[in-house]
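USER:
I would value a second opinion on how I read folds in token form. Give me a protein, with the fold worked out from its sequence. Write it directly below this note and I will take it from there.

ASSISTANT:
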Amino acid sequence: MFQFHSYSHRFARFKETRPASYAKGPAFACIAWIPFAKSVAALPPCEYQKHEYARKFLRTKSVFDLVFRSGNRTPAAKFGSREKFLTSLDAKDFRGALAIDNVSAALSAEGEFMGVDFDYFAEAGFTPFRLQPESKVSYFCPGAKDSNFALSSVPNQDLTVELWVCFKLGKFPDFLNYAMTGTKAPSAILRIDYSLKSTQAVKIDVAGSDIPSQIHYRSWVEGTAYHNMLNISTSEIDGFLNAGECANAPISVKGHVETSWLPVSNPEEPVEVQPSGVKLF
């Protein structure tokens, strides 16, 4: 069902120059999800239970009861391959996912970055619906999505790919949110800043909104960074909720990875690929 897309670009001044080598970087991915609970009261002690949205609506359920009842299973700790990562998403049990793979930057004989090739994945997930807290998911409502990437370079220093996806509730759950709160939901964000340095370093920053939770994977194995939305403060909860109807929620860095790229000599020059609808800033 899901698949990666490929992108290849050469900077204009290197259009006629054959690369002397490539800098190969590791795959990196992140998945966003909302933890499942039968009700907000069933969660471990957290600030959601003290929030005004934890109060019952029409003596039945609170806003946060519905949020966590529509939660997801915790993603796998590791996948082992890109194919297993994609297969896991076919279950639709996630809110958003972002990944970059097969990163390969072309280098001139002087060591300057000439361009980059990579595969990318940026998708909104789904909102699960359960008729009863204990029941299986009856329906997965697809979320709304906007995604893009930007490419930048500082000569003789670095090359950076900024990849992001915004995602929010689908039409029906957003209607329920409006009925209970009087406003439509904001958009959550996942973002990866992937930088190759002339020093042979790779620096990866993962950013995102405080809601939902995130898990990060380096080379399809879980990294050290793990953002748990159950640990955020009341002000961070409100910062997300009050971002505005359909507006992007505030983001902050949730994880950081540093490693080295692998030099590869005598590469074959790939064919330039630029998918339609992609903006290059």
In short: Residues 271-281 have pLDDT under 50 and may be disordered. The chain is about 10% helix and 40% strand. The first helix runs from residue 63 to 69. The radius of gyration is 21 Å.
